[in-house]
């Protein structure tokens, strides 16, 4: 019996698909760009420290050492939202990567995005989790494995899923945001050291400036620094100054008022504190017992470089006597 074999069918060509997974260097650059955005937001929107949040960047697990302001927290929330619903932050768009679910290739959504961010704490332990993409088959960190996410090259992801190419204005916008953030992340600082400016009675002399019962008053200034980026300045030290009064024995008569004021270069008062002598001690404006050491908020001295004046005076029997004054930066 003769068996006739049909000619072999035409074989399909072997297609060499590109590796879809993002490399560690790309991920690091994207994270650094996003951290620059957070740093710029913390600088521009500084409104007082609120603590630190888990770090966004590949590193030691905690973000910028600068305390995050409320505005910077909002910026972090915006970055998380962009990643949750579009798969990419501005930094990721610049380097061309996207974070998606393994099962369907879609963005993670808000719940998994936040969980993945929290899981980066695992990656920060000895940096092992952040380095794991170097040997993992799908180049995953521990956080990626926790939520089953993949970080893919955006152009490969789009071609394999038949998605449209990223719009030019979206990519351009990401470059502009990241570029501006990088420029705003280069700080320059200046400042002055702490100083004490006392006005006191020499040993054996009479009362300070002839005011009975007052021996000394001093303004103590803490060290102050200011950071400048792209011509914009923010104070980085919020310590208060102090004004300390020293009374003699006997103290000034009851009803004597100790007044301390700070004014700007135009003579506008930016801070005023009044103490009233009562029974050998002092009371504040509400009549409560008070300390002779008073605090002056750091912002009373105005922007950097400072131009301000300080004056201490005593009001007795309706007559004001200046006992100390100091000017800074005028002229």
3D architecture notes:
This protein has 331 residues and is of the alpha+beta class. It has two domains: 24-183, no CATH class; 188-328. The chain is built from eight helices and 14 strands. The chain has helices spanning 24-44, 70-86, 90-95, 110-124, 128-131, 142-147, 154-161, 168-183; strands spanning 97-101, 149-153, 188-192, 195-200, 214-221, 224-229, 232-235, 241-247, 257-264, 269-278, 281-283, 293-296, 308-316, 319-328. A hairpin with a 2-residue loop joins strand 10 and strand 11 (281-283). It starts with 23 loop residues before the first helix and ends with a strand.
Structure at a glance:
28% of the residues lie in helices and 27% in strands.
